[in-house]
Amino acid sequence: MKTGKHQLVLFDQNRVCFSPGEFGVLFNWISLGLVNLKRWLKGRTGEITFVLLGMRKTFVILLILSSLSRTHAQVPAYTWEALGPFEVARHSSDTGQWTANGIGWVESLAISGRKERKIYAGSNVGGLFYSKNHGETWNFRFDLDRVCGVWDIVVDKTWSRRLWVATGTNTWDYDWGHGVLYSSNGGKTWKSTGLHFTPDQKEMVYCLERSTLDKKLFVACTATDIYISRDRTRTWKTVLDQDKKARVTFRHLELHKTDKDKMVASGAQLWFTQDGGETWSEQSAEMTFQQVNNKRDSLPPRYALAVNPQNNDQVMVLYTYRRKNYIDRTDDFGRTWYNVYTGRDFDRVDLNHAEICWHPKDSNRITVAGVRIYQSENQGKSFKLVSNPSWGHPQFMHDDIRAMQYSSRGNLWVGHDGGVSVSHDSCKTWKDVCGYGLQATQFYDIAVDNGRIVGGCQDLSSMFYANGRWSQTSSIYGDGGMNLIKGDKVYVMQNGMRILYGTFGVDKWRKVFAPFTPKRFKYPFVFCPTNDNAIWLTDHDIWEYDENKNWRNLTKQVPHSYTKIVALDVNDPDSNIVFFAKDQPTWDASKSALRHKLYKGIRGDNGYDWTDITSNLPILAWREITSIVSNPANVNEVYVSLYGFDEGDARHRVYKSMDGGDTWVNYSDGLPNLNALKIVLQNDGKTQLLATDEGVFYRNNELPQWVKLDQGIWSSHVIDLEYDAGTNAFYAATFGNGVWKLKLAD
């Protein structure tokens, strides 16, 4: 709990105490109701039972302190500060240069109002944003106690503040969601509907549609199943239930606008129903590619579909097979099919990039999208490119299209990896509407030195932050990755493959030619603990790169085992002891199988002598280590954070050793059943902070469990956490909500 200099002590100062200001807020909120009071107290340590007695304005407050296992040590006062980016960062792109400028991945869009001023934009991880002024400014509208991506949005056409969202969060190897959520006040507060999931069920809702004929009728899909609600989402019925391992990957739903019993769903399969979901017919076998299907090549990963707004029996389906694009069409809602287009006029579409739209007033105009956008004026017979990643081009738009829809006025709205764009002139030009407040940047990693940040982003290259402003490395096209900074010296990763070296704030880079190709966006990458002019990089091994451009393999004696290093600890001040971990569980708990996952190195005369200590931590049979950290003041005190979901009530998120890795104890009390991603120590190890899929948690040597630091920050997927001694602050990099700064009171 936050505490001030002057406190009004209630009961016992070692248990619960409020400053006078906090007590006033507490009393006022009680008058607003018990629900708001409990929400205000969320995150306070301990269990408090409130009993409100009296009539009308008379309240008697009885605080019953129960089940409090707190010690004299409390969570210190803390403050979070959002650092952004809040808008598209500054850049120095030359006209004609391909650039990755943007603000972040927008997966879903909903446009409301006749003038299209109200916009809802959903991030695949970072929640929901709202603009009421055509995208000039944005507000975050997903202040939940859990992390949720938003994959689809339904807005009530008669009351734009009433909306439903399909939730799902996809990060790395794990997908999960919380089903369909409902808000009656424009997203300020939310509640679950009858279609509800928990993260351990690993279900995402990819699409949500509402009938225009029956406002009580909703249809939703997960990757394998289709659900129908006939009572405004209170209850749901599964109408197409497929095996969870089936290759279905539903992504699209369309409801007929003149016959409420007709529906179509698509993903890696194509399904039609004409009786309200009672029976379904699979139409993939009718697609044109089947005429050349050799039964050996991979089938189309995704069918994108569009229904003609002027005749809903007409449906077009877009897909790719053997790197050739197809558009097939039915004019009788799936009874018969014919091919409209076969060729390579546009980029291939895939599981993550496949959209097709039919213009609401002109049936000749068809727009398709994968990486970029292409348009046809002759019902899909030929296409021309209408978006371009070249800076200064009138059709400039960030690549990788995620959502695309025509408004009723014929304007085309697009969500992509750079944010939101709109065209008011049939795609001749595009307007960026990523105004201030669309804090949706997805960072893979950050490095911090004296308050200056260098960060690698999903499809936004790398960014610099100094003196309150962000700038973008426009010369790097695509994804960023891992980063290092010391003074003006900076190393960054490009597209998971190249290592670049440069000077902070200067967009000029030199390549570091490595003896391996990383081929991933996150892996340990540190300055050499004994030489600031050298760096350690990892792949299957730890490599040292010195100022003379020489490479040295530090783990030559360790079995290769076709696994890659995912965690590295070099906190020992003398670098005499080093720990590292490799990816993947062993999937076998026997001692003979518990090998090649966790190593301890002790410096000798000829380098490091490595010992495999995997068998000391049997949980590695079912978990992968995400980070390792030792206490610089006592290198035998070691912590590991773990990846994966737990079955049952037991949690296995953090383990602790006090004897250098010989024995371990579970240190996970208080943590949610989500991935623990990085642990950081401060104050000679007495303070521990943990980045997770659902925010940052705090613990010290006297607290019995972890406590979430959730006051003043959105619930965010915190992918990296760094401590900067120069500012005495922690910096949290989120995958979907930018960077946040945390200050803990001394």
Describe the protein.
The structure is a single chain. The chain has 746 residues and is mainly β. Helices cover 3% and strands 41% of the residues. It has 2 helices and 62 strands. The strands form 17 sheets. A 4-stranded antiparallel β-sheet has the order 5-62-61-60, with no helix packed on it. A 4-stranded antiparallel β-sheet has the order 6-7-8-9, with no helix packed on it. A hairpin with a 4-residue loop joins strand 56 and strand 57. The longest helix has 13 residues. It is globular and about 80 Å long. The protein starts with 7 loop residues before the first strand and ends with a strand. The N terminus is likely disordered.
pLDDT average, as an integer?
88
Radius of gyration from the alpha-carbon trace, in angstroms = 27 Å
Strand content is 35-45%
Tally the helices: 2
Distance between the termini: 14 Å
Unreliable segments (pLDDT under 50, ≥5 consecutive)? 1-72
Largest sheet: 4 strands, antiparallel
